[in-house]
Amino acid sequence: MKTLKKISFLLLLLAVITSCTKEEKFATQSLDDQKANLKNSSLVPVVDLMENDDDPEDEAVNMQLYEWGLEVRDRMSNSQFYSSMLNALMNDNDHVMTFTELDIIPATATVEYDNVTYYPHVWLYNADTVDGELDPYLCLGTDIDVEEALAVYQDDEYIAGWKLFDMEDIVLCLNDVESMQNPVFIIGFAEAEDEYFGIGEPRRSATAHPNEQNPGYKRFWAKAFRIDHRYDHSSKSEVRMDYHFEIDGKFENLTVKVPVQEIHKDDLNGWEYFSHPLIYFEDPNGAYGDDIPFNSEVNLLGIVYEHDWWCLSKKTVTINGQYKLYYRTKYASHFYQIFVFTDISVGNGEFFTSSSLKIYQDE
Fold first, then answer.
1. 172 within 8 A of 184, measured Cβ to Cβ
2. Angstrom distance (rounded) from CA 84 to CA 92
3. pTM score, two decimals?
4. Continuous segment of H or E residues that includes residue 219
5. What is the mean pLDDT of the chain?
6. Are 258 and 242 in contact (CB under 8 A)?
7. How confident is the model at residue 108, as a pLDDT?
8. DSSP 54
9. Which residue among 81, 170, 175, 339 is least enclosed by CB atoms within 10 Å?
C-alpha cells in the first residue's frame, strides 16, 4: 500500500511539474504570440479538413494534397534538405518549384480534376519578407471550413497545414501569412506546360463578338459582378476579373486586374456593384488623359473567376485562339465568364451585361 501511495505521489508530482513547465513556456511568450497560437491552432486534425461532401472529386484531390504534405513534411525534417529547399525557392524568380525540381519523388505524381491533370509544386509565399531562422509553416493549397477548424465564424478564407517542427495542426488566412516572417510554404498544383500551351482546340476559350461603331471620347468601367454558384468553403466568394488589351492589332502583354470583390454566400444571383476603369480613350479636352489614342481599334479580352489567394497564376485560358491569360484559382474550371470585345463601340450607359459581369460607358 505504501508503495502504491508513493507511486501515486510521484505521478502527481510529475503532472504538476509538466503543467508548470507548459505554463511557464506560455507565460514567456508575448501577448501577441499567445493570441496567435490560440487563433491559428486547429481544433481538428488537418486530414479532417480535407473532406468535401458536396464534391467527391475535390475531396479526392484534397486527400492527395494531404499525402503530398506528409511526404514533404517528412523530407523537411532533414535539416540539410530543408536548407537546400529554402535556398532554392528563395533564389527562384517566382519562388515556386515543382516536386521534380526539388528532388521530391511522391508516391503519386499527379492529380486529376474535371479531366485536367495537375502536377504538384511548392511555393514559398512570403519569400520577400522571410526570416529563415524562424520555424516554418507548411500548408496545403485548398480552402477549408474554418468554422470546423476553430469553432468560430470567420469571414476570411483559410488554408490548413502544420507548424514545423512541432507538427502542430494550424490554419492561416491571408492576413496571417502577410504579417509573418516565418517561412510559409504552400503545396499547390498547376497544369503541365504542354497542356496549357497545347496544340489544337483549347479547353477554355472564347471568340470575338464584334461591334459596329468606332471608339470615341469615352471611358469604359467594370461596374458589377454576379454569381449563381460558388467554388469555396468560406462565407464569401472572392470574385476577380483579369483582362488584356489589343490595340491596333498589337497585343498589350500586361494583365490588368480588377480588385477582388467579395460576394456573400447569401447574396447569390444578386449584383455586387463597384466601379473600376477599364479603358480611357483620348479626350481632346484633356479630361480623361490619353491612354489609348482616339479612333484606335481596341479589343478587350478577359476572364471573371474565383480568386484564391493561396494559388499561383498557373491556370490559363486561351482567347481568340492565340492569347493566354493566367489566373489564380484552385482549378482551371473555376471561372464565371470569359469574354472578348472587338472594336469597342461608342454609346452611353450599359455597354455589356452577362450572367456575371456588367460593363458601362460614361453617360
1. yes
2. 12
3. 0.79
4. strand 219-225
5. 78
6. yes
7. 96
8. T
9. 175
Find out whether 251 and 244 touch, Cβ atoms under 8 Å. Answer: yes
Predicted confidence band of residue 167 (pLDDT cuts 50, 70, 90): confident
All three cell numbers of 87: 535556398
* Angle subtended by helix axes 79-91 and 56-76, to nearest 10: 110
Give 84-94 pLDDT, tens digit per residue: 999 999 999 99
- pLDDT level of residue 318 (50, 70, 90 thresholds): confident
Amino acid at 2: K
Burial code (b: 16+ CB inside 10 Å, e: under 16) for 49-77 equals: bbebeeeeebeebbebbbebbebbbebbe
Distance from C-alpha of 16 to C-alpha of 174, rounded to nearest angstrom: 39
Query: How far is Cα 49 from Cα 51, in angstroms, rounded to an integer?
Result: 5
Grid cell at residue 122? 511548392
Per DSSP, the three-state class of 303 is strand
Nearest to 93 by CA among 118, 121, 128: 128
Between 45-49, 68-72, 92-96, 319-323, the lowest mean confidence (pLDDT) is in 319-323
Return the residue matching grid coordinates 471568340: 207
Q: What is the CA radius of gyration of the chain?
A: 25
For residues 74 and 291, the model is more confident at 74
Task: Indicate the DSSP class of residue 332.
Answer: T
- DSSP 8-class letter at 41: B
pLDDT, residue 166, reads: 82
C-alpha cell at 164: 514545423
List, as one string, the DSSP characters of 128-159.
TT--TTSPPEEEEEEE--HHHHHSS--SS-EE
